[in-house]
């Protein structure tokens, strides 16, 4: 039914065709972002493509990764294996913790299953061709994981983390506030009033403007969360985004007097604003809810002003995000090939119960916000 091929570079695939599938999935699976990811020459990538008479119907990048360095993608650090293999294959996005197989919108349930089966077979072929010991889809969206797991031969997917995004009701910031309790609305208004009273000024700028200052702010936030980052490395990273991503997003900048003291960098894709990074000069901040105003309230206001309906905030520090209107949804790992044979249903469920306890503790009183059909089904 489908013609499955493997492409060597995203540049050989029309962006319009690819993004017709990626728009409802993730910015981090967009043609633009994947082209940027190809700059890492130590990682080999192939693109599995399934076509029918109407064109592209399913797609996935597959990365052959020798010695993964990120602890959020290293299998041993995630508890998915005891010892990392020399080479693993990661299907879908390999950074930014937001993943799904790409399927043409509007397919029937039967057509989706068939397309996924063809896609999974192609992904497995790439893994074998690369001689990889393990194959995984990591950080798979909750709404995509059940059918992907069935197609990949995985009995029970593994619960990794929680993803946060703010769905925007209505068409104004007042509608956003209206979703809160009276007490929470008052708290948001207090934070906004404190920010204004402190004398901060906000503006929008391209990512390439004042890169060295942005890099210093990024390093400040990384240090605050226990991660050392060299300012020169941070500047190179931000410069690579400014130069390597065709639409590099925008920076919401926070000024105090003449000093740049904070920022939030985001992308606009598929009706969603995607927060990518944020940074602050904590020694100069006045304790006026700067992070929440820049990365939540002002981003929400920007989304409303530009006709977008969601703000994506990502993983970690989930409880304060939920407190300010975010929905928390599970993210999953789906093994394929020999890795799927290792993870029996009983072993996976035991892993998921431990993960559910940990993530529920991070959510505190908002733990119920993370419960989904798949969460209940696979734990």
List keywords for this structure.
single chain; 379 residues; alpha+beta; Aminopeptidase; 13-stranded mixed sheet; 13 helices; 39% helix
Brief overview:
This protein has 379 residues and is an alpha+beta fold. Helices cover 39% and strands 26% of the residues. Strand 2 and strand 3 (55-66) form a beta hairpin.
Topology at a glance:
Elements: E1 3-7, H1 15-22, H2 31-37, E2 44-52, E3 55-66, E4 87-91, E5 102-103, H3 109-129, E6 134-141, H4 145-152, E7 158-167, H5 173-178, H6 182-197, E8 200-205, H7 211-224, H8 231-244, E9 250-256, E10 259-269, E11 272-280, H9 290-305, E12 310-314, H10 318-323, E13 327-336, H11 338-342, H12 345-363, H13 373-378
Parallel strand pairs: 4-6, 11-12
Antiparallel strand pairs: 1-2, 2-3, 3-4, 3-5, 6-13, 7-12, 7-13, 8-9, 9-10, 10-11
Shape: globular
Strand and helix order: EHHEEEEHEHEHHEHHEEEHEHEHHH
Number of domains: 2
Query: Major β-sheet, in short?
Result: 13 strands, mixed
Share of helix, binned: 25-40%
Rounded to the nearest angstrom, the radius of gyration is 21 Å
Q: What is the average of the pLDDT values?
A: 95
Q: How many beta-strand elements?
A: 13
Unreliable segments of 5+ consecutive residues? none
Structural class: alpha+beta
Give the name of the CATH architecture of the largest domain. 3-Layer(aba) Sandwich
């Amino acid at each position: 039914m489908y013609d499955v091929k493997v492409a060597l570079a995203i540049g050989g695939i029309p962006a319009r065709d690819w993004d017709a599938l990626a728009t409802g999935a993730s910015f981090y699976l967009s043609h633009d972002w994947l082209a940027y990811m190809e700059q890492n020459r130590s990682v080999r990538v192939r693109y599995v493509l399934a076509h029918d008479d109407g064109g592209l119907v399913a797609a996935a990048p597959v990365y052959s990764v020798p010695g993964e360095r990120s602890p959020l993608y290293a299998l041993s650090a995630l508890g998915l294996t005891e010892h990392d293999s020399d080479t693993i294959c990661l299907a879908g996005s390999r950074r930014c913790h937001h993943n799904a197989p790409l399927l043409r919108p509007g397919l029937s349930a039967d057509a989706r299953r068939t397309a996924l089966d063809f896609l999974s077979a192609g992904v497995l072929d790439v893994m074998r061709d690369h001689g990889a010991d393990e194959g995984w889809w990591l950080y798979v969206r909750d709404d995509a994981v059940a059918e992907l797991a069935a197609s990949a031969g995985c009995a029970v997917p593994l619960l990794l983390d929680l993803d946060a995004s703010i769905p925007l009701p209505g068409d104004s910031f007042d509608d956003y506030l209206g979703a809160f309790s009276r007490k929470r609305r008052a708290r948001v208004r207090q934070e906004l009033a404190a920010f204004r009273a402190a004398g901060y000024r906000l503006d929008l700028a391209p990512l390439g403007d004042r890169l060295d200052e942005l890099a210093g702010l990024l390093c400040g936030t990384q240090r605050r969360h226990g991660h050392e980052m060299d300012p020169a490395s941070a500047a190179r990273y931000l410069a690579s985004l400014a130069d390597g991503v065709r639409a590099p997003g925008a920076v919401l900048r926070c000024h105090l007097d003449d000093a740049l003291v904070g920022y939030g960098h985001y992308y606009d894709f598929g009706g969603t604003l995607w927060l990518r990074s944020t940074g602050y000069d904590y020694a100069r901040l006045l304790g006026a809810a700067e992070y929440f105003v820049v990365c939540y309230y002002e981003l929400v206001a920007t989304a409303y002003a530009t006709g977008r309906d969601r703000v994506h905030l990502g993983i970690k520090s989930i409880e304060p995000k939920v407190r300010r209107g975010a929905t928390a949804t599970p993210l999953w790992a789906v093994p394929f090939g020999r890795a799927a044979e290792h993870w029996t249903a009983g072993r996976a469920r035991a892993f998921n119960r431990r993960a559910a306890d940990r993530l529920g503790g991070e959510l505190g009183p908002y733990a119920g916000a993370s419960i989904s059909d798949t969460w209940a089904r696979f734990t």
